[in-house]
Amino acid sequence: MSVLTQPHFHNETAAIARLEAIGWPQGPHCPRCGGFDRITTVKGGREGLRRCGPCKREFTVTVGTVFERSHVKLHIWFQAAHLMASSKKGISAHQLHRTLGVTYKTAWFIEHRLRDGTLPMLGGEDKDVEADTTYVGGKEKNKHTRKRDPRAIGGLGKQIAHTLVEHGGAARSSHIADVTGKTLRTVLNNVDCKSALMTDTAGGYLHVGREFSSHDTVDHGEDEYVRGNAHSNAVEGYFSILKRGIIGTFHHMSEQHLHRYLAKFDFRYSNRSALGIEDEARAALAMRGIVGMRLMYRDSSLA
Ligand SMILES: [Zn+2]
Predict the structure, then answer these.
(1) DSSP code of 141?
(2) Residue 216 burial (C-beta neighbours within 10 Å; 0-12, 13-18, 19+)
(3) One domain for residues 155 and 86
(4) Which of 137, 134, 131 is nearest to 186 (CA)?
(5) Which of 84, 190, 252, 290 could link 117 by a cystine bridge, Cβ 3.0 to 4.6 Å?
(6) Are 135 and 264 in a shared domain?
(7) How close is the Cα of 31 to the center of ligand 1, in Å?
(8) Closest to 1 measured CA to CA, from 91, 73, 94, 133
């Protein structure tokens, strides 16, 4: 892990300058009128305060974002983004809590918001998207579908993770209650219907599959992982990373937190080095995502 020597990891002024460079690649612009012209720095104001000449609005790069409303200093957010981006197996909130010296609750909050900043769209015209499920928790967790005892599923602490993987692109996972058509339709709402959909032969995919430009299936029960253009290699690869991460980092997978763990692995997978995004760029993307969203978290408890 790198030694975090750059000033924006330690110094709030440097952190604001760095966020401005990341969040305003075309230069500062006004959040009220959207203008780029006649924006000046307010002398004697708080760090990074700007003023829009035309509409008189005063603002900073963090205005309207979760950075502004959180008590956590910006340089700590940069440390968190760096740790998340450079950890190969994903980083637990507990590790963030210890490393950053923030409360566990704050660490959960930071981690969740940084991931939200990079949520990808999946699929589109001429894009292939694989969908599949795996079971997490319990003794059956590492077994493949055909080796599992179906009677052992449900009620014994095993949870169902559903993952969508765009070929050459991002992943989006959900913790689902069952594999009925209704549930699968809900998760497939994350996929552009112009995509080519690839699934296993689970019955729940049949109806919703017709809403896509094509729907190919592979039958895991027949050990058939590639048939024609229908692959399950990408999603199988995702599940293998997920399970290594669970074994390596998260020893206790609670049902309550499964969706957060899945989101963590989606972040890792969707910004993986194979896409040409290296650690520092990945960290910058997470920070810029938050500036770009300018979300107001009125209903969430802020760290
Ligand atoms: Zn303005």
Answers:
(1) G
(2) middle
(3) no
(4) 131
(5) 290
(6) yes
(7) 7
(8) 91
Residue-range definition of the domain harbouring residue 106: 7-24+61-118+280-293
Q: How many domains does the chain have?
A: 2
How open is the CA angle 74-80-83, to the nearest 5 degrees? Answer: 145
User: Same domain, yes or no, for 200 and 221?
Assistant: yes
Sequence letter at residue 86: S
Instruction: Please tell me whether residues 158 and 94 are part of one structural domain.
Output: no
Residue 93 in any domain: the answer is: yes
CATH number, position 226 = 3.30.420.10
CB atoms within 5 A of ion ligand 1 belong to 30, 32-33, 35, 52, 55, 57
132 with 266, same domain: the answer is yes
Residues 80-89: tens digit of each pLDDT:
999 988 887 7
Q: Is residue 300 included in any domain, yes or no?
A: no
Calculate mean pLDDT across residues 10-36. Answer: 90
DSSP secondary structure code for residue 193 in this structure: T
Distance 281 CA to ligand 1 centre (A): 30
- 72-118 per-position pLDDT tens digit: 999 999 999 999 888 877 788 899 999 999 999 999 889 888 877 66
Kindly state the tokens that stand for 154.
């449900």
The residue type at 140: E
Q: Separation of 49 CA from ligand 1 center, angstroms? A: 13
pTM over 0.85: no
Query: What are the helix and strand counts (H, E) for the chain?
Result: 10, 10
